[in-house]
Write a structure and sequence with these properties.
There is one protein chain. With 858 residues, this protein is α+β, with helices and mostly antiparallel strands. Strands 4, 5, 6, 7, 8, 9, 10 and 11 form an eight-stranded mixed β-sheet that branches. A hairpin with a 5-residue loop joins strand 17 and strand 18. It starts with a helix and ends with a helix. It comes from Streptomyces similanensis. InterPro entries: ABC3_permease_C, MacB_PCD, Macrolide_Exporter_MacB.
Length: 858
């Protein structure tokens, strides 16, 4: 009880000094809990949706996915005949069977040709209005569609795009473009995570999505009373045979959860990774806080030891303070985490993904994990200062001599740091010289960990040298005030090293990702200039969605184009020379394609691919399976017949564009794949034969009817690439901001405690004539030099990581190393401002000290 009372007294006596450490714990725990609550809420939302929308048993056409997704390379969904509905309806245990037809391979536009698709990445769904949908949606305005000129729209899409009854919309599919007017509005009775849904009458949906009537994409089956889903599935499967996919409601829901779970897991673990970085940075803050508090209480600890307190009691007293800090910070962090989750839900709502706070899910494991992490991290961080406090002898403490083993411990720490840094540097060298990306990645990961830990350990030694260099370059111009700031930063190299290390971690990651991102852009643009001969690139969306036949025809009819090269992905199964089987997509192209995308040919001639029954292979495939020019491979096309294709060329895979692709002619694929199963074009490359600006404008006008189709010249493509990588990096920088904020709190806390530690010294300097303005400047300069010290370590380390990562990317074709010096310089200069910001409050408090009281401080 005595230890507890002592700890409580010390904790509340230094509550102001503990506050910033508590904030660091709070932020880290809040980010962890917020991530878990947010992802759990998303799971709950989608689980409700999947359970509500799935019928007891679903029958799908062969080729449909487990989730009921109906997109395909032909742009049309796989279908089953209407007779299947009648067969299912007559099956034992079936109460009702209803045919459905829907597709997500669509683009919907309003009268002004603006897309009505969600901005969140959720699907656009067009289908027939059926009884299963009526269970989860309620018509709130108008009527359901009753003819080809009517369409019903979900209420969220109507509100977002300001639609009203009678407005005309266009549905663009592989079959063509269908125009209809809004006849009704239906609202979800469950949470809609953001999909845009459009309903047509059944006959119209069949015609515009499939191109013919009398077919469906699936059958929704309702079980008769007392019949379980599993039994119903067995009955339906027995009635239909093996040519169809039959699933229970649970199986469909589980498949949807599995597909969604991959995305949610990536997001969750990425965000938890950044929270872990914030925890790591927070450790330095806590270590510094308790180290300085122990140093300031040296005489108090000596008195405690002198009157009978044991080392264990002193140690325990400090750890109990850490426990209190961890509990308070973690408890507040759990509450803040729920607030972060609600904020993320609101943000997703603004982006189009609607998540209801009614579904807010806080599992008991979330606060338990948050409290556990916060408390454990805090106590572990305080262990070394607590152990150091327990080792101080009573007489040394009463003399304020500190721990006698500090110098020896510092030397051992520096030696360990140098060894780890050297080992990490060697690992990075091995990664940079690796022949295989997989092997190099392991060395890179090891090198990152070793160099990071090594520099943290050797930080005090580096601080003694780098701070002097920074002082000579930046602080000496401020005269005596600058020299005092430099000496203050050098007074305790361990403290300066730990404070700078906290900032180093976040900035190292920023620098690494900046180098990698800039190198990827530079490599891709260089490869584009070397390998792409086409003047224009046309694709739908991000290139994953195929172009409709109408769009391809409009492109080919555009005046001023010298050539048009189409690209189709054709899944196939290859029989290798040794008899093995290998699944690999072939890319069917036009004869002009080798001019539009230049691949180095190692043997044979690429132009021979466009002869009869010919193909090319990539060098990696050829080397792995022993394939060479002149070999004949059996190629079984997924949607057609088997062919025997002769290998006429081996192309180099030492490229980032079309790496690993095998080519054949579109005419060759057409001989073995029926026309109605031939994949649509993934993209079109075109050459300019006239005034570039005029042809560019004409090409954009030709595809204007479908806003999902983009036309890019080479400059547009490079700009789009920079923007995509820039957006990704900005998102990562935003997440890393949490760690940098915690590091800034560490600088503030270090300065604040340092000011308290130097109270008498500050009073003496003020008595000798140091003005308040000079005092504030001294503390600001000390803060700036500590921040710049951390920035130098972080940026140098991060650029080393980034350069090594680029060497590995070079094995995948990204061969250009590009250091974004404007970004690196901006971050370095920004670190100085971070130092100034961190010093505002400590400098203000120091300047307000009463001189006489400060001198009298014991």
């Amino acid at each position: 009880m005595t230890v507890l009372r002592t700890s409580l007294r010390n904790f509340f006596a230094h509550k102001g000094r503990m506050a910033l450490s508590a904030v660091a714990v709070l932020l880290s725990v809040a980010f962890v809990c917020g991530t878990l609550v947010f992802t759990d809420t998303m799971n709950t939302t989608f689980d409700k949706l999947f359970n509500a929308t799935a019928s007891d048993v679903t029958v799908s056409a062969k080729g449909a996915s487990d989730t009921g997704e109906t997109t395909s390379r032909t742009g049309k969904p796989p279908v089953l005949p209407a007779s299947v509905v009648d067969a299912v309806r007559g099956t034992k245990g079936v109460a009702e069977a209803e045919g459905t037809v829907f597709s997500t391979s669509v683009t919907v536009v309003d009268h002004d040709l603006d897309k009505l698709s969600p901005s969140s990445g959720a699907p656009t769904i067009v289908g027939n209005w059926n009884g299963n949908d009526a269970r989860t949606m309620k018509i709130v305005s108008g009527t359901a569609p009753k003819g080809p000129d009517q369409v019903m729209v979900d209420a969220d899409t109507v509100d977002k795009h300001h639609l009203k009854l009678g407005d005309e919309i266009g549905v663009i599919t592989a079959v063509g473009t269908h125009h209809a007017r809004v006849s009704g509005v239906a609202a979800f009775t469950v949470t809609n995570p953001g999909a845009a849904v459009f309903y047509l009458d059944t006959r119209t949906a069949q015609q515009i999505l499939v191109g013919r009537t009398g077919v469906y994409t699936g059958v929704n089956v309702t079980a008769a009373p007392g019949v379980g889903d599993d039994r119903l599935k067995q009955n339906v499967t027995a009635a239909l045979g093996a040519g169809y996919q039959v699933q229970t409601a649970k199986e469909v829901a589980d498949a949807n959860r599995k597909e969604l779970g991959g995305f949610l897991d990536v997001m969750k673990y990425a965000m938890l990774g950044f929270a872990g970085i914030a925890f790591l940075v927070g450790i330095f803050l806590i270590v510094n806080t308790f180290s300085m508090l122990v140093a300031q209480r040296t005489r108090e600890i000596g008195l405690m030891r002198a009157i009978g307190s044991s080392r264990k009691q002193v140690n325990r007293s400090v750890l109990v303070e850490a426990l209190l800090l961890g509990v308070v910070g973690s408890a507040l962090g759990v509450g803040a985490g729920v607030g972060i989750a609600v904020g993320l839900m609101k943000l997703m709502g603004a982006m189009g993904m609607h998540l209801s706070t009614a579904d807010l899910t806080v599992a008991w494991t979330t606060p338990a994990l948050g409290l556990l992490l916060g408390v454990v991290v805090t106590v572990l961080a305080a262990y070394l200062p607590a152990r150091r406090a327990g080792k101080i002898s009573p007489m040394a403490a009463l003399r304020e001599a500190g721990a006698p083993a500090d110098a020896r411990a510092g030397a051992v720490r520096a030696l360990i740091g140098l060894v780890l840094s050297g080992a990490g540097g060697w690992s990075l060298r091995l990664a940079a010289t690796a022949d295989q990306a997989k092997d190099g990645s392991a060395w890179l990961g090891l090198g990152v960990v070793l160099t990071l830990v090594g520099l943290i350990a050797v930080g005090p030694l580096l601080a003694a040298g780098l701070v002097r260099v920074l002082g000579a370059l930046l602080l000496r111009v401020f005269g005596p005030v600058g020299r005092m700031a430099e000496r203050n930063a050098l007074r305790n190299p361990r403290r300066t090293g730990a404070t700078g290390a906290a900032l180093m971690i976040g900035l190292a990651l920023v620098a690494c990702l900046s180098v990698v991102g800039s190198s990827m852009v530079a490599s891709a643009t260089d490869e584009l200039d070397r390998s792409v001969g086409a003047d224009f690139i046309v694709q739908a969306g991000d290139g994953a969605k195929p172009l409709t036949p109408a769009m391809v025809k409009a492109i080919r009819d555009t005046p001023g184009l010298t050539n048009v090269s189409r690209l189709k992905e054709v899944p196939a199964e290859l029989t290798l020379p040794d008899g093995g089987v290998h699944k690999q997509s072939l890319y069917a192209t036009d004869p002009a394609y080798p001019k539009d995308v230049r691949r180095t040919t190692l043997s044979g001639r690429q132009s021979d691919v466009y002869g009869r029954d010919a193909m090319s292979v990539g060098s990696d495939f050829a080397g792995k399976y022993g394939v060479k020019v002149g070999d004949t491979l059996k190629v079984a096309f997924e949607d057609g017949r088997a062919a025997r294709l002769r290998v006429v060329a081996v192309t180099s895979d030492d490229t980032a564009i079309d790496k690993g692709k095998m080519y054949t002619a579109i005419t060759t694929a057409g001989r073995y794949i029926p026309a109605d199963r031939m994949p649509l074009d993934l993209g079109v490359l075109a050459g300019n034969g006239g005034d570039e600006q005029q042809v560019y404008a004409a090409l954009r006008k030709a595809v204007a009817a479908d806003p999902s189709v983009s036309v890019m010249d080479r400059a547009d493509y490079k700009k789009d690439l920079r923007e995509q990588i820039g957006q990704l990096l900005n998102m990562v920088y935003g997440l890393l901001a949490l760690a940098i904020v915690v590091a800034v709190l560490g600088v503030v806390n270090t300065l604040a405690l340092s000011v308290v530690e130097r109270t008498r010294e500050i009073g003496l300097m003020r008595a000798l004539g140091l003005s308040r303005r000079q005092l504030r400047r001294m503390i600001r300069l000390e803060s700036v030099v500590i921040a710049l010290f951390g920035a130098l370590l972080g940026l140098g380390l991060g650029m080393g990581w980034g350069a090594t990562a680029q060497k590995l990317l070079a094995l995948e074709g990204m061969k250009v190393l590009d250091v974004p010096w404007p970004t690196i310089t901006g971050v370095f200069v920004g670190s100085a401002f971070v130092g100034l910001l961190a010093a505002l409050v400590p400098a203000f408090r120091a300047a307000r000290m009463n001189v006489l009281n400060a001198i009298a401080t014991d």
